[in-house]
Amino acid sequence: MPDVPAPPAAPSATPVAVAVPPHFQSFLAFDFGLKRTGVASGNRLLGAATPQATIKAEGDARFAQVEARIKEWQPDALVVGVPFHPDGAPHENTRRAQKFARQLRGRFNLQVFEVDERYSTTEALASGARDADAASACIILEQFLRSLP
Length: 149
Description:
YqgF/RNaseH-like_dom; EC 3.1.-.-
């Protein structure tokens, strides 16, 4: 039987565990949206995330609130959820979330890890979350934390 090449892998924003230095212990995660950005804080030791107040702002106002969160929590790094279609294909919000991640890197000089966040909002809504954006940020961060050694 002839060798059949494997189909190309779907794009993935899931970080590679070895790329996260062991001294990085605390993280802030963001579920980026055009009007609202969910926020969660968490740490490597507990492997859990806690929802924070959702940022309801756009543009520079959003970044002012992100800066306030970073000053308050002083994370070692940031985590951004990047959405994809169910088949792994990127879409417009994929590019927007990746741009947001790049802006965070540039503005705050922190390492930013991108995590594939397919279905995080659906999972947050299914769990009955009052703030689906913050709950989604928790899901994103906990997924990231589980990937660490």
